[in-house]
């Protein structure tokens, strides 16, 4: 024995034990034969079956907890759960690593008292209760010293070890074969063979599901890569668009700086604050300053506020630069609205669709303005203000030859 099995040798072994077909052998090789040499090595098979335990230990960075080690006892034999829990509690076993010999000595009395034979398998070594001749134990064999099984010897005890490994429904942490009340070695083998027949149909689905999960992971990784590429492209385009918007906004801002008489240094400071406050397009600038949302928006993104004199310059320019805002400021000279009132009027007019003078004139002419405001939960204009607005609408229509 060289610790390797060819496909034909593997098929002969598994067909003798469980009547596996060619498809199941191919599935097993596909999942276990990592180096793709067409042969199954002991280490390949053990790593495949028990990689979950190794990965979990590495991720935790500490020994597995007791409850996980005894999980197979509790899963297979529900009546043992209270006794298992009580025994380890009394003996103060807190954490046990599968490779830590001293802690497992504390389990010896329990196993002897309750006729339990324990096989523990992890991804680094196979440690099991076997006799020196590595045959199945019979009724009176309780517990034997554990031996680390070399790869060559592993296949010498295939009739025992391979069947135990195969029959486990969840061989991630530990396997505990229950070989109690058997009359002979043959009876042990018969019972294991019977269990294998029940489990045989599940191995193909197990391997197929494992393959499906790998494919799903690969597809998921592909989707992640695609999404990351889209995000990267979107961020790059967003950056380019921001640069274009800032370049387009500079000439308008230069008009503000010239009108305010700011020197180059101060103008650049104001411009930088506008950019950091995302007020670097004409639309965003006009709406924010004419609707009074600048301070709130800057505070939301932790950008310092404009000094009062700069705020006045920027606000006045925004009102003068936008026709609707300019109209609201004109109407304020008739109604007595202060700056806050003017900004509130600009805000609610835009929210009900009156974004320019023409749409405001139409809403006033059709007597629909107050109805729109009420629908959108805004206060309607009072009679005196509405009369002034309607007067403006008539003048606007006449000056623009509108009916």
From TrEMBL:
SUPFAM superfamilies linked to this entry: EF-hand
Protein's name according to its UniProt entry: EF-hand domain-containing protein
Gene Ontology terms for molecular function: calcium ion binding
InterPro entries: EF-hand-dom_pair, EF_Hand_1_Ca_BS, EF_hand_dom
Organism of origin: Symbiodinium natans
Keywords from the named record: Calcium, Coiled coil
Presence of the UniProt keyword Coiled coil in the record: yes
The keyword Membrane appears for this protein: no
Organism lineage string: Eukaryota, Sar, Alveolata, Dinophyceae, Suessiales
PROSITE patterns, per database record: EF_HAND_1
Coiled-coil portions: 217-244
TM spans (from-to): none
